[in-house]
């Protein structure tokens, strides 16, 4: 199989979150070809391999080395460089490549695409570097790169401020609506059926800070048990599922889509996310959908029996 075809296969499997042992054998067969493939294919293959948690496999090292060489030699065009995902940088880059990657990101933002925003990936990379590579990478960066990463966080904070402003506007709108309803009731009491009707206002359903129905179910159960939880709390680039302040505990739900298909193995992105949450100093408790469903099945079996 040609590397291009293998890349497309890995892309399809990564979207399906399906891991197969045959992928390692195919990586072995294509090990010597990665330096010769177009950089577009190289980046896509690396992203797919990282998403499939293949970065630690021996036969994935040639792919990682080829990508690191392209980043260090600055041979990727801007679009190819921008397509590198945070999980790829965290799983495949060595210290020298990570430094070059951050310098290149700052240069792209400053010189070529000042209006382009891609803060999500870089915020996770920065968090990883500061928590796990403090001496090897973070202290080697100059002030310009650090300020660039700081500005990305400020941009994200400005988005949060905008959300808070919208929440305040909604609150004022609800207050105004309440006053209108009170006036209508007075008119109805005074004029009866001849009173001017209340204008019908279309309202949008407010989005709850729940990542999935399983999250909502677990949150309701824990709240019913007396735990005071904060849902959707923002911590760095992540939105935490549930946070219990008195014990400094983050409770993360793990629905089926956080596992590879037909396995109980967490995806690489979920695994790294949990690792970074622990590194931030939180106690982490995981509620797995598989464990939850098995317990429910046992309870149903006992009740039916």
Automatic annotation (TrEMBL):
Q: Which UniProt keywords apply?
A: Coiled coil
Q: Which intervals hold domain RAP?
A: 251-290
Entry-linked Pfam families: RAP (PF08373)
**InterPro entries of this UniProt entry?**
RAP
| Superkingdom per UniProt | Eukaryota
Would you tell me the protein name for this molecule?
RAP domain-containing protein
Where along the sequence do coiled-coil regions lie?
149-194
The organism is Perkinsus olseni
